[in-house]
Structures are given as structure tokens and as C-alpha cells.
Amino acid sequence: MTETGPAIRVEGLRKLYGGKAAVDGLSLSVPRGCFFGFLGPNGAGKTTTIKMLMGLAPPSSGSMEMLGYTLPAGDLEIKARIGLVPDETLLFEHLTGEEFLEFTGRMYRLPRIVARERARELMALFQLDDAPRKLIGEYSKGMRKRVAMAAAMIHKPELFLLDEPFEGVDAVGARLMKDLLLEQVARGATVFLTSHVLEVVERLCERVAIIDHGKLVVEGAMSELRSGAETLEDIFVRVVGVERHSGGLEWL
Fold first, then answer.
1. How far apart are CA 120 and CA 143, in angstroms?
2. Is residue 67 within 8 Å of residue 223, measured between CB atoms?
3. CB 214 within 8 A of CB 49
4. Is the pLDDT at 117 greater than 80, yes or no?
5. Which of 33, 95, 222, 226 could lock 99 by a disulfide, CB 3.0 to 4.6 Å apart?
6. Does residue 1 have a pLDDT over 50?
7. Does residue 15 contact residue 48 with C-beta atoms inside 8 Å?
8. How many whole angstroms separate alpha carbon 130 and alpha carbon 187?
9. 1-81+201-244, superfamily in CATH?
């Protein structure tokens, strides 16, 4: 293991479903201490890539390395040092938010008193403490995303893997989550983010990679990818080959 290499390195990563490649020969390196955006059209392979990095889906071929550990050999060591917010926030619906956070802290081997204290502090920080006995099953989608993000932070991870973390979150909650993630990057953590909201990615991320049909089509610093006054949306549309719509339906 090395502390100086990239936070994430994948080489020739492939994932086949029924003979069809959802991810097809992906090679990518994510520097440590970077806010990294991982983008692509629907069905491009973003969530499949995240699932492989999370250890939820084994790759068909290729290699993966995170924080200097090789997957799957270093799976347990990696999981202790990363924070996860999957696209589908599968939470324990019969626990309160604070109980779930304390449970998560204990799973990361925090002492009980530390897990309980951090759970209480995170509930307040994420503005979820106004109904402390409310069960997660009664939470809105935005509240569930907030508690999932809080759970990802409770053990102060070195690397965050976030799949659409702001989906369904109101403007106040999203702003809070963005500010907290920027603080984590400022302390040296790495954030690997997928999002369909390109304006958010453009404001937050230093580097982006765009995949299409499971293949990497462009990767680099935002400043390197722009041509003139291009926005990230312009870059995205240009590299994935989407033509500007010029016509319309006669009846519409």
C-alpha cells in the first residue's frame, strides 16, 4: 500500500451482463485530495462502475485499486476508509436516524460512546434532529439522502463514492451537503461523484471524466476541457455526440 498514489486507479475494467458490456475497458486515475466528477448519459455505465468500486458487483475483467489497496484482496481495508452514498439509499427503515447513524459508526468500529456522540452531532448538522423519534421509513427522499450522507461521514473517511447524492434533496439541504463535501476535500479527502446535474458538477469538481457506452471519452481538469466560453453542458453534449435539436413535431 502507498499513501502517495492515486485515490482510485482502474485499468481495463469491464463488466458484462448477458454478453453485453455495461463497462467496456475503462482506465481511469483519480488523484488524492480531488473533487472528481464522473459523468455520462443514462445507461453509460456510471452506476455499474460505482458498484464495482463499492464491491457490490465483481468485474468481468480488469483491475481496481483504491487508496493503495488492490480489490478484491484489500476489500476490508478499503471499506474501513471510504464513505458510500449509493444511488438507492438502502437504509434500515425501522430505526430512527440517530439509531442508524450510531449503528453505522459501530460497524466502522467506533467506540459506542463516540458513535453515539457523532450520531447526535451529525443529526443536528444535517438538520434532522427536529423529530428525533421519527423512523427512517417515514423520511422523505431528501431526508434519506441527508442521513445517508451523514452515515458516509461518521468515520471521517479518506474517500467518498457518491452516486447521485443530491437527487431529491431541497436547495437548503443540497447547499449544506456541498459545503460539507468541499470541507472534506480541503482537509485532504477525495470525492468521486456522479450526478446528472451538470451545473453542480461544474461548480464543485476540479476534474471530470465522461463515459459513453461504457467507454471513457474524455478526462481532465475543467480548465483543460473547456474551449473558449464553453460550459460543462456544452462539453458534455459535444463529446457524447448529441446533436442540437432543430426541429419539432408538427402537432406540438
1. 15
2. no
3. no
4. yes
5. 95
6. no
7. yes
8. 29
9. P-loop containing nucleotide triphosphate hydrolases (3.40.50.300)
**Distance between CA atoms of residues 51 and 47, nearest Å:** 6
> Can you read off the three cell numbers belonging to residue 131?
423529530
How much is the pTM?
0.91
Cross-strand pairs, 14: 24, 61
- Domains of the chain, by residue range, sit at 1-81+201-244
Residue 77 or residue 7, greater confidence: 7
Cell matching residue 108: 466502522
Q: Residue 234 corresponds to which cell in the numbers above?
A: 456544452
* pLDDT tens-digit map of 220-250: 998 888 777 788 888 888 888 765 555 668 8
Concatenating the DSSP letter of every residue in 171-191 gives: HHHHHHHHHHHHHHHHTT-EE
Strands (E), the chain: 8-17, 20-30, 35-39, 61-66, 69-71, 82-85, 159-163, 190-194, 207-212, 215-221
